[in-house]
Specification:
alpha/beta, TIM Barrel, Arc Repressor Mutant, subunit A, 2 domains, 9-stranded mixed sheet, 3-stranded antiparallel sheet, globular
Length: about 400
């Protein structure tokens, strides 16, 4: 597949994974490793610089629009190496003027003292793992901070000059009721968070919670009520729901996450980091680096650092564009959907016609989005898009894997 005359590559972002944390939480299924001994900050950041240079040709001349430093607990790293890493990134690839640079941080006294240093190092936005403002619930989750530390972290972040602050807040916690879930949301609103990521606790199989679920998990009806009440409270406070789990004040949407949801490109750096890149020929590759920090550092700078490198088929590419784009409440412009998916406009219309006719998708004003009913059943709706449209030249149509029954 070729990009074609006049076609443009997607914007480019960078995801950097810093995999260590002080203690792994019982629900966490990310590539996080409890720190044993001294943090190898210098060696790891040097390795990130070498890996960045190896991947630099994939940028194809594009500058970087956003950087997200996730983990693990990136705020365990000293600000100095973080600043050096950002300087290296700017020197190798170039940062767009005003690029959004987000760092994940967990509340805690020792880390709060570093926030000024992170701001001076070039970080423009913080994502704080608040999760709850109830000390009992935090302890049940295995978090090592308390509500006081969370409040102090937000206050300190504003005091040192951050103006883009996201608070991660979870609901559906063991022993939590609707009133408690609403109180957590009300608490982060009162703290002045610009952006709230509001997630239901999910029990993943390969985690301590998956092996031994905590007692007191609320039932589905209670969880749905929590979700509705919290959404209403966020809306009343002026935080618009622009994505399934994301709420933002005007001008505070996450540039980096919007890149994911609109099928932008991103280089993945660090142990377990995922990447997605588009070649000059239009082919889309998904990559994932080795998960073990020790193995990753040993392999860095060579092709062996990537545990996976998978080329998407045209059908997979089109499906992923919609998989991500329909998470946005306003959906995708049709021109962007065509450009990112590689589908022609007629092929895209044929593929989506049954769901539009059924009232689950809306296609008007040059935009494709889930209807109000479809948005509330988005996971089921997305299954209806499988296996994607037919690959060019394959002939025939791509039937729904459920024949439409799941949405009746």
């Amino acid at each position: 597949m070729s990009l074609g005359a006049g076609a443009q590559l997607p914007p480019l972002a960078v995801y950097i994974h810093l995999p260590w944390c002080l203690q792994r939480c019982g629900y966490c299924d990310f590539n996080a490793h409890a720190l044993r001994g001294e943090l190898p900050a210098r060696a790891y950041v040097d390795a990130l610089g070498r890996e960045l240079r190896r991947q630099a040709p994939a940028a194809l001349g594009r500058r970087v629009t956003s950087v997200f430093i996730g983990g693990g607990t990136p705020s365990l790293f000293p600000p100095g190496p973080i600043g050096e890493l950002l300087d290296t990134l700017d020197a190798v690839l170039g940062l767009e003027s005003g690029a959004e640079i987000t760092l994940e941080a967990n509340p805690g006294a020792s880390e709060n003292a570093r926030l000024r240093g992170f701001r001076q190092a070039g970080v423009t936005r913080l994502s704080l793992g608040v999760q709850s403002l109830d000390d009992t619930l935090l302890a049940r989750l295995g978090r090592i901070h308390d509500a006081v530390a969370a409040r102090e972290a937000v206050a300190e972040a504003y005091a040192v000059g951050f103006r883009g602050i996201n608070a991660d807040v979870m609901y559906g916690l063991p022993g939590q009721g609707v009133t408690g879930a609403e109180a957590d949301v009300a608490g982060v609103i009162a703290l002045g968070a610009d952006h709230v990521s509001h997630y239901q606790l999910t029990i993943e199989p390969e985690t301590p919670f998956g092996r031994r679920p905590p007692p007191g998990l609320p039932d589905e009806e209670t969880v749905l009520e929590m979700e509705a009440v919290c959404r209403q409270r966020l809306a009343q406070a002026g935080l618009e729901r622009y994505e399934v789990s994301a709420f933002a004040r005007p001008g505070q949407r996450s540039v980096h996450n919007l890149g994911y949801w609109t099928f932008g490109d991103y280089l993945g750096l660090g142990a377990g980091a995922a990447g997605k890149r588009t070649g000059a020929d239009g082919r889309v590759l998904r990559t994932r680096q080795r998960r073990s920090p020790r193995a990753w550092m040993a392999a860095v700078g060579s092709a062996r650092v990537e545990a996976e490198c998978i080329e998407l088929t045209p059908s997979e590419q089109a499906f992923e564009v919609l998989l991500n784009g329909l998470r946005l409440r306003e959906g995708l412009p049709e021109r962007l959907a065509v450009a990112r998916s590689g589908c022609s406009l007629p092929a895209l219309r044929d593929w989506l016609a049954p769901l539009c006719a059924g009232g689950w998708l809306e296609w008007r004003g040059g935009r494709i989005r889930a209807s109000a009913a479809g948005y509330e059943m988005l996971d089921t709706l997305l299954l209806e898009l499988l296996p994607g449209p037919p690959d060019p030249g394959s002939g025939g149509s791509a039937p729904s894997s459920h024949g439409g029954n799941a949405l009746k």
